[in-house]
């Protein structure tokens, strides 16, 4: 099939490349000429495991193309994907100006029937708005479909090629047939394609992300309570998660959820509820608790040092909002580091991929290093903010030699508490140190 993907950001690039991988002819469009030039020169513009191979193969085999020429790109295609940004406005609602702007242009450009697909996360009712914007100028038939993505950064290629489900919102049988042909190769293992109305598809995306954010937030609160009552959240998590109705995944407490999706989508769904005069109390609490949770690690550190970090050197491991990405949007590390600096600390930071992006925020206020152990030299404490695999089994004796004090604050519960105590570390993690253990160790 011939496909155009408008917007070569994260979602557009992964989607376009994966559609090419199943044999489609894909042309990706972006108005950023520099970006297009880079992609045409064979250079990827994002970091995503597994994407590079697919990108190189499909461009070489002439199934994947990049251009700035929107009109030329959409001329001969059957399907047009809109993978454009929908940033949150000041009031939390998704800004649709990019999506609707392109929709109006498409109306003027299309000369034969097209299926136009909203891939961006957009509020309920957007498919209708997009259709109206196209219709203003359109002289031919078209259908607008809502097809939300459920890609996780870091495993997006796998998520795209082997989706748990595909959600397609359309009220047109013709569009349904096109979408079925397109996605059938991705669900041969037996996973479903759910066809539904446009509004339900749009709502599904927000409901899924908001539920996951709620689940994490609930566990963060359980963890915080575990600390005060002397329970171990690891045990609690296992005991809970083995109930089939709950399930084991996505129950890990930490330093709050971040990234480009959860914070934005929870906010946008809350805004939708406000606009519709529905008081969505749970969502309000989720936002409130998560905003607090992003400060939990720095608060623990401050407490340990009696609220004064002047002259203290804190090492930070992990800057990305989660492992296997260089994305720092809404990353808990931003809040952690900001708080540490404000309290007077000198901060040295290491991340396998995200340092360059973090430098744009902190510039020379933070010392970024190339190797994880370099961050630890003469450190008074180590703060672990992202659970990169490389941090899971470090050389603790070497760490102890490098650090001024053997003190670790772990926001991702990477190590066993007893083991760390055996190795002579003060070790404080999320929801796990029993009152007893902590008392023994601090005193
Ligand atoms: C998410 C959704 O999973 C995906 O379906 C959607 O399309 C986009 O948003 P992503 O933002 O890439 O994907 O990250 P995800 O792996 O879902 O993690 C989101 C945040 O939750 C991260 O900050 C992560 O650290 C945190 N998290 C996740 C936890 O704190 N605990 C968990 O158990 C799981």
TrEMBL record:
GO biological process: polysaccharide biosynthetic process; UDP-glucuronate biosynthetic process
Name of the top EC class for this enzyme: oxidoreductase
Active site: 261
UniProt cross-references to Pfam families, sorted A to Z: UDPG_MGDP_dh, UDPG_MGDP_dh_C, UDPG_MGDP_dh_N
Catalysis performed (reactions): UDP-alpha-D-glucose + 2 NAD(+) + H2O = UDP-alpha-D-glucuronate + 2 NADH + 3 H(+)
Superkingdom in the source lineage: Bacteria
SMART domains documented for this protein: UDPG_MGDP_dh_C
Keyword Calcium: no
Alphabetized InterPro entries for the sequence: 6-PGluconate_DH-like_C_sf, NAD(P)-bd_dom_sf, UDP-Glc/GDP-Man, UDP-Glc/GDP-Man_DH_C, UDP-Glc/GDP-Man_DH_C_sf, UDP-Glc/GDP-Man_DH_dimer, UDP-Glc/GDP-Man_DH_N, UDPglc_DH_bac
Residues the record lists as binding substrate: 150-153, 205, 250-254, 258, 322
Alphabetical list of Gene3D superfamilies matching this protein: Cytochrome c1, transmembrane anchor, C-terminal, NAD(P)-binding Rossmann-like Domain
Pathway(s) annotated for this protein in UniProt: Nucleotide-sugar biosynthesis; UDP-alpha-D-glucuronate biosynthesis; UDP-alpha-D-glucuronate from UDP-alpha-D-glucose: step 1/1
EC annotation from Swiss-Prot or TrEMBL: 1.1.1.22
PANTHER family per the UniProt record, alphabetical: UDP-GLUCOSE 6-DEHYDROGENASE TUAD (PTHR43750)
UniProt-listed NCBIfam families: NDP-sugDHase (TIGR03026)
Sequence similarity: Belongs to the UDP-glucose/GDP-mannose dehydrogenase family.
Protein name (record): UDP-glucose 6-dehydrogenase
Native species: Sediminitomix flava
């Amino acid at each position: 099939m011939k496909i155009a993907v408008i917007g070569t950001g994260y979602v557009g690039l992964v989607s376009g490349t994966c559609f090419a991988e199943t044999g489609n002819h894909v042309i990706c469009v972006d108005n950023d000429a520099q970006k297009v030039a880079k992609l045409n020169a064979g250079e990827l513009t994002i970091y995503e495991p597994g994407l590079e191979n697919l990108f190189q193969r499909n461009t070489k085999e002439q199934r994947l193309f990049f251009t700035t020429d929107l009109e030329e790109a959409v001329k001969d295609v059957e399907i047009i994907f809109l993978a454009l940004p929908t940033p949150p406005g000041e009031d939390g609602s998704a800004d649709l100006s990019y999506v609707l702007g392109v929709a109006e242009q498409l109306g003027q450009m299309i000369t034969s029937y097209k299926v136009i697909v909203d891939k961006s996360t957009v509020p309920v009712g957007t498919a209708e708005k997009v259709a109206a914007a196209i219709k203003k100028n359109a002289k031919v038939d078209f259908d607008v479909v809502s097809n939300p993505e459920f890609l996780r950064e870091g495993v997006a290629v796998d998520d795209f090629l082997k989706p748990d489900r595909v959600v397609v919102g359309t009220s047109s049988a013709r569009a349904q047939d096109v979408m079925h042909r397109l996605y059938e190769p991705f669900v041969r293992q037996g996973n479903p394609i759910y066809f539904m109305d446009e509004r339900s598809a749009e709502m599904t995306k927000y409901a899924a992300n908001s539920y996951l954010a709620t689940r994490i937030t609930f566990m963060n609160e359980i963890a915080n309570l575990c600390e005060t009552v002397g329970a171990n959240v690891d045990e609690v998590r296992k005991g809970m998660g083995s109930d089939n109705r709950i399930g084991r995944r996505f129950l890990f407490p930490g330093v709050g959820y971040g990234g480009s999706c959860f914070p934005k989508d929870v906010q946008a769904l809350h805004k939708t509820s406000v606009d519709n005069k529905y008081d969505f109390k749970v969502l309000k609490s989720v936002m409130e608790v998560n905003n607090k949770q992003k400060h939990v690690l720095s608060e623990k550190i401050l407490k340990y040092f009696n609220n004064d970090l002047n002259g203290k050197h804190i090492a930070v491991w992990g800057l990305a909002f989660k492992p296997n990405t260089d994305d720092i949007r809404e990353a808990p590390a931003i809040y952690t580091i900001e708080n540490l600096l404000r309290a007077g600390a000198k901060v040295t930071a290491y991340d396998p991929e995200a340092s360059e992006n973090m430098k744009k925020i902190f510039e020379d206020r933070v010392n970024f290093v190339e190797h994880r152990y370099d961050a630890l030299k003469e450190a008074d404490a180590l703060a672990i903010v992202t659970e990169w695999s490389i941090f899971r089994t470090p050389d603790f004796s070497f760490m102890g030699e490098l650090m001024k004090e053997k003190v670790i604050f772990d926001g991702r519960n990477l190590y066993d508490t007893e083991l760390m105590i055996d190795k002579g570390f003060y070790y404080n993690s999320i929801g796990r140190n029993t009152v007893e253990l902590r008392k023994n160790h601090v005193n």
